[in-house]
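Hi W., the zinc ion complex you wanted:
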Amino acid sequence: MSTKHDRAGSHHCRRMAAVFSDYLDRDLREAACRKVDEHLKRCPDCRLYLDTLSRTITLYRGLGGVRVPKNVESRLFATIRLAAAKKKQTKRTIR
Ligand SMILES: [Zn+2]
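Structure:
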């Protein structure tokens, strides 16, 4: 597998996004987790995504332990890419 990483926002990031919810659930095997970790080190876009996704999942769990639907994940990803493009940094704490 290629380890070459293009700029944040390349398609492979979308593929990464597909495994993030499993990653957060620790459903992934160790090797896959390492792969995700490696990617995250190099890709601030995905770090931002994962951070937001993790907060979203926390919210969902607070609502009764449901998993975040896939369409929510992809919409999140689109939103975050927009936010990253604007380089707006607003820190919010979700309680
Ligand atoms: Zn990425």
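Residues 11-86 form one domain.

W.
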